[in-house]
Amino acid sequence: MDPSAIGEVITAAIGANKAGGGLARVLGPAADEVAEAIRRWTAFRVGNVARIGTIADAKAPGGSGAVPARVAMRLFEEGSYSDEPVVLEYLGGVLASSRSEDGSDDRGVSWAALIARLSVDQLRLHYVLYSGARSALLGAHSVGELCDPPLFVSFVDLLRALDGPRVMDRFYEAFYGLLGEGLVSERFGFGPAESLAETDATTLWPGPGLVYCASRRGIGLFLWGHGKGQQFLTDLTATDQSFELIDPGVSIEFDPSGVALQSSLPKRQEQG
After folding, report:
1. Which of 13, 68, 121, 204 has the fewest other C-beta atoms within 10 Å?
2. Contact, 93 vs 59, CB < 8 A?
């Protein structure tokens, strides 16, 4: 693509009219500096930046504010090379979360670096586990109530969200990747019902599945990835919050209501 055409894409991505919405509204004063920095990028990269901007604009709260150029460029450097919808969804959420009144909040840099280390499978699994945790724990009022209770999800429901070949191998790698980043608690178990019974014989396990607990860091990523990084961790389960995906390309076949508190599962009857 010739330079003038790329320039038009950049103008569309950043937004020539600062009075309107879009990426320029989210970035604030840094918009011109960012536009200049990405002017030499390819149309593919700039197009992905535009998608991040659309997501961020939809997730960012109204009012004035700005994003530090350091945060924006870190997000765009990572996101411009990927057209995977779930990656752009999370990066757009971090960009929206990084908007503050004085434009000095650069915490999004570390969240962008974390997302850069996660595979698409890991991000999809993270979304599934925490949308499920929100459904199962709705109305919880403390971090302890969010992170202490074990949750159960069947493999039938869970693996459908990853889809594709070698799904069990990919699940193992994705889950242990999240574990290594502190995005789920170290209290977990998975396998057939018989294996789960070895760790807790009192619960009548409905079948093969995963037992997991949320972590502070995992909740934090979920909030930041949905444009809610400035909110409390307990807002994960607030009834007045919405965690809808913005990019229609994020196709995850999963019903969060399929995640249940272990304590809500039936108990084994004692043999008399």
Report:
1. 204
2. yes
